[in-house]
Amino acid sequence: MPKGLITRFIVALNHLIADQNMVWKSGVVLEREETRAEVIEDYAKHKISVRVAGRNTRGLLAIVDDQLERIHRSFPPLRYEKYLPCNCEGCKNLADPYAYKLSELRDFAKTGDQIQCRISRKLVDAAALIEDLFPGKPTRVSIRREQPQAPEPEPKKEVFVSYKWTDESKAIVDQIEKALSTAGIALVRDKNEVKYKDSIQGFMERIGRGKSIVVVLSKGYLESKSCMFELTEIADRKDIRDRVFPIVLEDANIYDGVGRLDYIAYWEDKEKTLDGRMKKVAGANLAGIREELDLYAKIRATIAGIVETLADMNALSPEQHRGSNFQELERALKVRLTE
Ligand SMILES: [Zn+2]
Asked: What pTM was estimated for this model as a whole?
């Protein structure tokens, strides 16, 4: 709320100051046609109170109201609401009677309805209350300014991270999280490493929303069922080159053909072992095993392509990232998030 609002009001109506001296820092008494209006600003409560008494309360109130409107209009972000004090038996003698929003009173008055006082709980005639500004009776109008509405929050900038729950990877993810948070980007990470079957739905939703995903590749990641499930789902979304920001740990060893072949062999072996075991088991638990076997087959079939793509993406090593405090990653993510 801008300071000086009451000051501007006083300056504008300077010619009406009662006795030419009834003015102080946060208020003023105005006089016109044997009528006085006291206008006080309660800065802390965002409130301006007006009390009018005398022969022509309506006339003076109209002048005060008009001037307050003008000043408020010159501060476009200010929203304000006018209140009228309740005139019920319970409120009459209260220093702080219940106050109705003028807009609400008008709305009730239009249809001739009564409105309930929240202090006495009695019903009050809305139209009569608005009209209740006759001479002799002190009338108070409070103009309560509401805080300007907060601007629409910007769409949240989120980056997902897929990583193996190991000390080394966690430490890197912690660092990335810290670096990104200073840029206003939230890193969305699993609190726990979820079992791939439990996480399908949630993960699909996350990935659906996720414009970008940081993938921390390590040997452990590439040999983990749940991590590879995530990676195959990410890769299924096609635009992997735009979405994925890989960080490749040294032990991932994906930059030469032999290293990549080792992973294919690893998953081929997993598949064969499980397949062999399945043939010895009959009946009840086959459905779960079948599902797992399908996953292994999928991983084996896609790992070569995914890993080659990721290896080809010119990812920085963790050392290079750390050296720049992840600035390169931050810059790339910012570009991606504003696309
Ligand atoms: Zn009342």
From this structure: 0.52
